[in-house]
Amino acid sequence: MLLGAHVSPAGGPANAVARGVERGCDAIQIFNQSPRAWRARLYTTEEVAAYHEALDASPVEALLIHAVYLINCASEDPEIREKSLTALTNALRAGDQLDAVGVVLHPGSAKAGDVTAAIARAGEVFREALAESDHCPLHLENTAGTGGTLGRSFSELAALIEAAGGGDRVGLCLDSCHLYAAGFDVRTPEGLAGVLDECVEIVGLERLGSLHVNDSMTPLGANRDRHAPLGTGELGEDGCAVFLSEPRFEGLPAIFEGPGFAGKQAEVEDIQTMGELRVRGLTARGVPSRNAG
Fold it and tell me: Which residues are catalytic?
């Protein structure tokens, strides 16, 4: 498992690598543009070259890009869908430039409308964005289920993947906080194993490309996306340790998004805590700690 954090790419993506190294990360996640603005951002040739040089010289092994929050590919508003298409295509093209493991996307919201129709609208945008980019995968993130958000269940995620064309570039990002808030109790090895068995049956574990490891401020099934510093929320230290030591997650980038112990962004202490909780989980499973990396 590649432990890491969401970091700022201010000044160029090479600086994101440096910030990951400062925090002791094996993997990093960035926004490719302002998360709350539609303004497009693609990297220059010089920025891309500097990024790859920095990455090759660092212990960071994987990059994820998180698409901007404004995107709603399922919107009934044609203007919003068009803006969403442009932003998602730009994110995937940035992923092509930086050889990202994937672009993580909140699938969208039906709001008060029909879910089946919303999934079809979202799928159309996904297909076009994938066609307008080269090779970077798209990772649809499971959601907490607030309002009409899509992706709260594995059946919805499977329907979204099918609507996107079902190709090899469409995968999943599983968020521990969102799973718990959506009613999946992943605090024990048995509970998490049962949830993943359901994922295997409905979606296929081969679709799983990345993880978000976040604690939850809200109780099981609350359908609200509220993160807490690792080990301090409803999942607690034991629940986070379980998620960080799940055997079927081996090799995946696992990103802590925050808030951290010291504030909004993740710092060294948060990544150290991830590592300690992973060792704790592996030890409880009877796995030697030398496999904790």
Answer: 36, 66, 69, 106, 141, 175, 178, 212, 225, 227, 257
Report the alpha-carbon distance of residue 114 to residue 102 in Å, rounded: 29
Q: What is the DSSP string of 215-257?
A: EESS-TT-----EESTTSSSSHHHHHHHHHT-GGGTTSEEEE-
pLDDT tens digits, 24-80: 999 999 999 988 889 888 899 999 999 999 999 999 999 999 999 999 999 999 999
Q: How many CB atoms lie within 10 A of CB 286?
A: 6
Say if CB 94 and CB 107 are below 8 A apart: no
Cβ atoms of 214 and 175 within 8 Å: the answer is yes
pLDDT attached to residue 292: 57
**Distance from C-alpha of 14 to C-alpha of 29, rounded to nearest angstrom:** 12
For residue 271, the surrounding DSSP H or E stretch is helix 268-284
**Among the listed residues 233, 164, 246, the one whose alpha carbon sits nearest the alpha carbon of residue 197:** 246
| Strand, helix or coil for residue 175 | strand
Please name the amino acid found at residue 95.
Answer: G
Per-residue pLDDT band at 112 (split at 50, 70, 90): confident
Q: Please state, in angstroms and rounded to a whole number, the distance separating the CA atoms of residues 278 and 285.
A: 11
Rounded distance between C-alpha atoms, residue 271 and residue 263, angstroms: 14
User: Is it the case that residue 290 has pLDDT exceeding 70?
Assistant: no
Helix axes 268-284, 236-244, angle to 10 degrees: 80
Torsion of CA 129, 73, 146, 210, to 10 degrees: 0
Cis amide prior to 288 (ω within 30 degrees): no
| Alpha-carbon gap, residue 199 to 134, rounded angstroms | 27
pTM value is: 0.96
> Of how many residues is the chain composed?
293
